[in-house]
Amino acid sequence: MSRSLIPVNRVGVDERAAALGRRSIKTTAKREGIRLATSMIDLTTLEGSDTPGKVRHLCAKAVCPDGLRPEIPSVAAVCVYPSLVGVAAEALQGSGVAVASVATGFPAGQTSLKVKVDETREAVAAGATEIDMVISRDAYLRGDDARVAREVEAVKEACGPAHLKVILETAELPTYAHVRHASELVIAAGADWIKTSTGKASSGATPGVVLVMLETVRDHAHRTGEIVGVKAAGGVSNTKAALHMLVLVKETLGDDWLTSERFRIGASSLLNDLLMQYAKLDGGHYGRAEDFSKE
């Protein structure tokens, strides 16, 4: 099936994204940036070895990332597989930290629509307030936009009150024009958020990809007044990368978008680096990695 793509200047996007990454962030702003980035994290564990105990430990860390520094906020959400949603929901009850769950045959998405819908309903019934679904990249790459949209619409309906984040797996999309087109496609189908990656691909939230997605939701907001969130996931593993993301958001969409209601960072290892960098600003030396739990 053929589709018409609006060209996106890759060189221009990459140059602008890189230039914004070279912004100097002074000590006070860096301290505020670290706290803000922490509040935007979807703290994630998506391994076959995940256990209820590991998820409870992760939830405790999500609520109170640093017991010595109460000014460090809770993260935005904890993201787990559907089978562990109930554990996370119980551990996070009353904390203000959301329960997110991957679904729809994550990470490959190679299951039937019925299975995708059933898995989504089960996760929501167990307590998930956010669902991270993956698009059918095989359908998208064949040009079958109708199937991609139909699946997003069906999963959105299955979400009920839960918010839907739609993962594009941008490493598998050939060009920035495809990233923009796929973003527009799933937004039109009902996505509350667009998300870069499963975290299982070769790359994910590169600055250029995130900039294209931010510009897409900016243009959508200008055109319709509707707000769609963006989640940068896959590869944002250190403080420098996280602060780069915040600069991209600020310069593309403004200060109103610097909130966990509109921007998220999907991460497993990022939180520890943020805490170590904050300790450096706080006490003049880096915290030791062993002072922070690995999960």
TrEMBL record:
Keyword Membrane listed: no
Annotated GO MF terms: deoxyribose-phosphate aldolase activity
Pathway(s) served: Carbohydrate degradation; 2-deoxy-D-ribose 1-phosphate degradation; D-glyceraldehyde 3-phosphate and acetaldehyde from 2-deoxy-alpha-D-ribose 1-phosphate: step 2/2
Gene3D superfamilies: Aldolase class I
CDD domains: DeoC
EC annotation from Swiss-Prot or TrEMBL: 4.1.2.4
SMART domains: DeoC
Gene Ontology biological-process annotations: carbohydrate catabolic process; deoxyribonucleotide catabolic process
Enzyme class: lyase
SUPFAM superfamilies membership: Aldolase
Membership in a protein family: Belongs to the DeoC/FbaB aldolase family. DeoC type 2 subfamily.
Name of the protein: Deoxyribose-phosphate aldolase
